[in-house]
Design a protein that fits this description.
- This protein is mostly beta strands and 98 residues long.
- The chain has a single domain, classed as NE0471-like N-terminal domain (NE0471 N-terminal domain-like, 2-Layer Sandwich).
- The chain has two helices and six strands; from the N terminus they run βββαββαβ.
- A four-stranded antiparallel β-sheet has the order 1-2-3-6. Strands 4-5 form a two-stranded antiparallel sheet.
- A hairpin with a 3-residue loop joins β2 and β3.
- It is globular and about 40 Å long.
- The two termini are 25 Å apart.
């Protein structure tokens, strides 16, 4: 059975950088500078981009203007439809505790 990729936490780290935590323990720090074309340009400013949250139903990052990003793309399992991939700055897994 295939497990759906879901975002559990997101933190704005400054500029266009987000720390995204996934349900499988993967953590990615992703830089979206230069990767917000078309409709995504509505969040390409400091104020709007910093207002990122997690949509608990969809399990992805979103903004109040209705923009959300595919969790499979954020996780690195698929390429973005726009062809403008963000840059993964850092990637690691959370430690399991007993």
């Amino acid at each position: 059975m295939e497990v759906l990729v879901r975002v559990t936490e997101v933190k704005h780290l400054g500029a266009r950088l987000l720390r995204v935590v996934f349900a499988d323990g993967l953590v990615r720090e992703i830089d979206f500078a230069g990767a917000l074309p078309g409709i995504l340009s509505t969040i390409d400013n400091d104020t709007a981009f910093s207002q990122v949250t997690v949509d608990a139903t969809a399990g992805t990052v979103c903004w109040s203007n209705g923009i959300d990003l595919d969790p499979d793309v954020l996780h690195g399992d698929q390429e973005p439809a726009s062809g403008h991939a963000p840059t993964v700055v850092r990637e690691y897994r959370l430690q399991q505790t007993a």
